[in-house]
């Protein structure tokens, strides 16, 4: 199993935010309102989340950074780590989010465009503060990278990019299957296992969790953390239920 599970597999609710509201769709489109991000983050933290991921999905397309005011209000309500992504194009952007209360910053589009960004970030803040978010879509027998909330295609192998990102100082990979996102069909286990076996940093599985069984599958495939969005937002799954399912399966989970 990939590193990062010694303290238990993390359950990580994800808040995709656009125009100050949590949204969720399928394969990055058909987005629907899912509530206030500050209220949602506080509720998930109270319910036992091990970490919250906040992604401002309109920041990069709009050419701006993640909304600092929402990050500050969210961070004030949390007693669990907060990872924030959206519009991070340099160390100054990352520092702004860390000062606003983020524990870690996630980078996606800007790192694909300029991989040296990862080197700059880990040198400035340490690899423990840097998460590389990779949005992967099936292409033939492999997967390629997409950025800008899935709108921009790259002729870049997603697994190779994960390896390069880890080598450049990313402390964790947030791996999302665009094909599975919002479908409830489960994580892309082939993609997950391929990346986990190819990098020496923890991997967060994202995209497709629709049942507790899917979470167990993701953990058994080597994920150090399991990201869930829509099924948590709609109340179909709960954090408590997720941890109980992992424990019943004999998998290490965080209880504190």
In words, what does this structure look like?
The protein has ten helices and twelve strands. It has a single domain, classed as Aldolase class I (TIM Barrel, Alpha-Beta Barrel), CATH 3.20.20. The mean pLDDT is 89. The chain is 34% helix and 27% strand. The radius of gyration is 16 Å and the shape is globular. The two termini are 22 Å apart. α1 runs parallel beside α2, α6 packs parallel to α7 and α8 crosses α10 (239-248). The chain has an eight-stranded parallel β-barrel with strand order 1-4-5-6-7-10-11-12, surrounded by seven helices. The chain has helices at 37-47, 68-76, 91-100, 109-113, 116-125, 158-167, 189-198, 212-220, 230-233, 239-248; strands spanning 10-18, 21-26, 29-33, 52-56, 82-85, 104-107, 130-139, 142-147, 152-157, 172-177, 203-206, 225-228. With 256 residues, the protein is α/β, with parallel strands linked by helices.
SSE order and pairing:
Layout: E1 10-18, E2 21-26, E3 29-33, H1 37-47, E4 52-56, H2 68-76, E5 82-85, H3 91-100, E6 104-107, H4 109-113, H5 116-125, E7 130-139, E8 142-147, E9 152-157, H6 158-167, E10 172-177, H7 189-198, E11 203-206, H8 212-220, E12 225-228, H9 230-233, H10 239-248
Parallel strand pairs: 1-4, 1-12, 4-5, 5-6, 6-7, 7-10, 10-11, 11-12
Antiparallel strand pairs: 1-2, 2-3, 7-8, 8-9
